[in-house]
Write a structure and sequence with these properties.
This protein has 127 residues and is mainly alpha-helical. 59% of the residues lie in helices and 6% in strands. A hairpin with a 3-residue loop joins strand 1 (65-68) and strand 2 (72-75).
């Protein structure tokens, strides 16, 4: 499900793109599955169809979806690549945050403890 947050600083079309990318990366949208039509999604989200069209166009340029004339828009056959890209991006962001925390005096032990606490709250598994 795509959720629009009007308090988010990102444009709505970018939020739609992020929502579709996230659903594809998590496997909620399987490869070659059809996306809702521009008109249908615009009605569901109560936003302008041009916004949906822009999001779909950008997603196609990024290789997340492809269009078939007269049929609609579909998820690419390689969402695993998208998942890997998202994980790589998250790892880079995590590295920046760890660096900031250490610059503020956080110790390695504190960082490990925070990570364990966060994973425990989320039901993460440790070996």
């Amino acid at each position: 499900m795509i959720v629009i947050d009007y308090k988010d600083r990102r444009p709505i079309y970018e939020q739609i793109m992020a929502g579709v990318e996230d659903l594809a990366a998590r496997g909620a949208l399987s490869p070659d599955s059809q996306l809702p039509s521009v008109r249908q999604l615009a009605m569901e989200l109560s936003i302008n169809p041009n916004t949906i069209q822009r999001a779909y166009s950008e997603l196609e340029k990024a290789g997340v979806i492809y269009s078939v004339k007269g049929k609609g828009n579909f998820v690419t056959a390689n969402p695993g690549r998208l998942r890997e890209e998202k994980l790589r991006s998250l790892l880079e962001e995590m590295a920046r945050q760890v660096t900031r925390a250490m610059e503020l005096g956080a110790t390695e032990e504190q960082l490990e403890q925070w990570l364990r606490q966060t994973m425990d709250k989320r039901g993460g598994k440790r070996e």
